[in-house]
Specification:
It holds the Pfam family NAD_binding_10. By secondary structure, the protein is an alpha/beta fold. It contains 13 helices and nine strands. Strand 1, helix 1 and strand 2 form a beta-alpha-beta unit.
């Protein structure tokens, strides 16, 4: 049995789907187990909250491996530790944590620091007798962040964003999930950290042009301060500190250099090239119509 946390989010739902597609037994952790979450009938749903460790025992019972996805806010290290301790008590063999690429480079921004602290908690608990092995998957920016452009694209054929000149090797969440599924289901990944990226570094302008091509229309890009984009993202339900930190990092030369680096790990791990932004845009074009 494989437990998936964050199972209703973009990456978690894709991990569930790919595991089901491989015929793996899957249990999805949610705070709302009585709600219809749209999972296939074969998926077992378990109630639990990473912030309430007393709720996690039943969720990890009988589980061999865990895909650990936490919210990315300041609660990340505590949630990671809570799950790792429950996994230790239950005899879970392996935890695959979705981290962030900044943790690989020791960046001192909030989000990288939170994830790095979570990684350290998992390592420490894993070092205890009978502790779970771990794998850390460290992606950069997701292609799906472009979903935040949908409102102004539909209304005015306009994209409003910040730090538009920085090139980023954005990655398709489906590829992030594929890496996670491979590390969950095949041997040889214990104690490994994987920095992963998409296949090409693109500025926001280049991504906007590709999205416009998928729509068959020309889009206008409008540059705004980070604070304006942060506030708009918060109104759309995103964690404002995460958005502010991610965009703020792109103003730092050392971060820009790393963000633009195309990494080979995805193809090495899953055996195919990562998806391009053109493919992501074509597959999700209806979001923007």
């Amino acid at each position: 049995m494989i437990l998936v946390t964050g199972a209703t989010g973009t990456v978690g739902r894709e991990v569930v789907s790919q595991l089901v597609g491989e015929g793996r037994p899957v249990r999805a952790l949610t705070r709302e187990p009585d709600r219809d979450l749209g999972f296939p009938r074969s998926v077992e749903v378990a109630g639990g909250d990473l912030g309430r460790p007393e709720t996690l025992g039943a969720a990890v019972a009988g589980v061999e491996s865990v895909f650990l996805l936490t919210g990315g806010g300041p609660e990340t290290p505590l949630h990671d530790a809570n799950l790792a301790l429950a996994a230790l008590d239950a005899g879970v063999r392996h935890i695959v944590k979705l981290s962030i690429i900044g943790a690989a480079y020791g960046f001192d921004d909030l989000v990288s620091t939170w994830h790095l602290a979570g990684e350290r908690a998992i390592r420490q608990i894993g070092d205890r007798p009978g502790g779970p092995a771990w794998t850390f998957v460290r992606p950069g920016e997701f292609m799906s962040n472009a979903r935040l452009w949908a409102g102004p694209v539909k209304a005015r054929r306009t994209v409003i964003w910040a730090q538009t000149e920085a090139a980023v090797a954005v990655i398709d969440p489906r590829d992030v999930a594929a890496v996670a599924v491979t590390t969950l289901t095949t041997p040889g990944h214990d104690g490994q950290t994987y920095r992963i990226s998409g296949p090409e570094a693109l500025t926001v302008g280049e991504r906007v042009a590709k999205l416009g091509a998928a729509l068959g229309d020309q889009l206008t890009l409008v540059e705004r301060p980070v604070a304006d984009v942060r506030d708009a993202a918060a109104r759309a339900g995103r964690q404002p500190l995460v958005v502010e930190t991610t965009l703020g990092n792109l103003g730092r030369p050392e971060f820009r250099e790393r963000a633009a680096t195309v990494l080979p790990a995805v193809e090495k791990i899953i055996g195919r090239a990562p998806y391009t932004f053109d493919r992501w845009a074509a597959d999700h074009v209806e979001i923007f119509r």
